[in-house]
Amino acid sequence: MILSNLQNSERIEGLHPLFKKFFDYVKSHDLLHTECGRIELDGDRLFINNVNPTCVSAEEQVLEVHRDYIDVHVLLEGEETIGWKALEDLQDEKQPYQKEGDCALYSDRPTSFVTLHPGQFLIVWPEDPHAPVIGTGKIRKLIGKIKI
For the segment 75-92, what is each residue's pLDDT rounded down to a tens digit? Predict the structure, then answer.
């Protein structure tokens, strides 16, 4: 898991060949005022889900696990807390992994939390079960989906 500000993205862009393309796009477009939905940058290899969810409590949220994609959460507006727990510590599977949607869900409680503010991003790898959209009210965020 990596947490940083958008202005520092160049420090990690070498970790995956599509990171630079993703961050260049995010930094050069006004995505807060762009219609919500999927933005395709490189087909299924790299796309962005531009979303406006309502946050839930930490007790209500479940942990997500992906196998095929790295998630890059970029907060545009509001405040969002994201929970984390080590993959090897998961015990309470709620939904088995489904290839379509690239997701398994777990009811375990996160062991760590980070709070994102506008202009910050959080990268979660497949070994990073995460519980996003924790907080109060609506937020605006991007979820970059980068194929491994």
Answer: 999 999 999 999 999 999
